[in-house]
C-alpha cells in the first residue's frame, strides 16, 4: 500500500489526507483495492459514529 494511504488509513493521520490528491494516478493505482478494503473495514467498524443525514 502506498505510504500516504498507510498514514491516513492505518495510522489515522487525517492531516495527510489532502496530500493524496497531489499524487499521480500511477503512484496509487496498485494500492486502490487494498485502500478500499481498509475504508470498508473502517466504515463498518462499531467505533465509527454514524451521524444521521438531515434532509
UniProtKB/TrEMBL annotation:
Predominant subcellular localization, coarse grouping = membrane
Ranges that cross the membrane: none
Does the keyword field hold Membrane?
yes
**UniProt keyword annotations, A-Z:** Membrane
Give a GO molecular function annotation for the protein: phosphatidylinositol-5-phosphate binding
For membrane topology, the record states: Peripheral membrane protein
Q: Name one GO biological process term.
A: regulation of signal transduction
**GO (cellular component) term, any one:** plasma membrane
List where in the cell it is found.
Endomembrane system
Q: Which InterPro entries match?
A: Melted-like
Q: Please report the name of this protein according to its UniProt entry.
A: Uncharacterized protein
Species this chain originates from: Pyxicephalus adspersus (African bullfrog)
Amino acid at each position: 500500500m502506498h505510504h500516504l494511504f498507510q498514514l491516513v488509513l492505518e495510522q489515522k493521520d487525517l492531516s495527510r489526507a489532502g496530500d493524496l490528491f497531489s499524487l499521480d494516478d500511477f503512484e496509487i493505482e496498485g494500492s486502490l483495492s487494498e485502500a478500499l478494503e481498509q475504508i470498508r473495514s473502517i466504515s463498518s467498524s462499531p467505533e465509527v459514529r454514524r451521524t444521521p443525514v438531515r434532509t
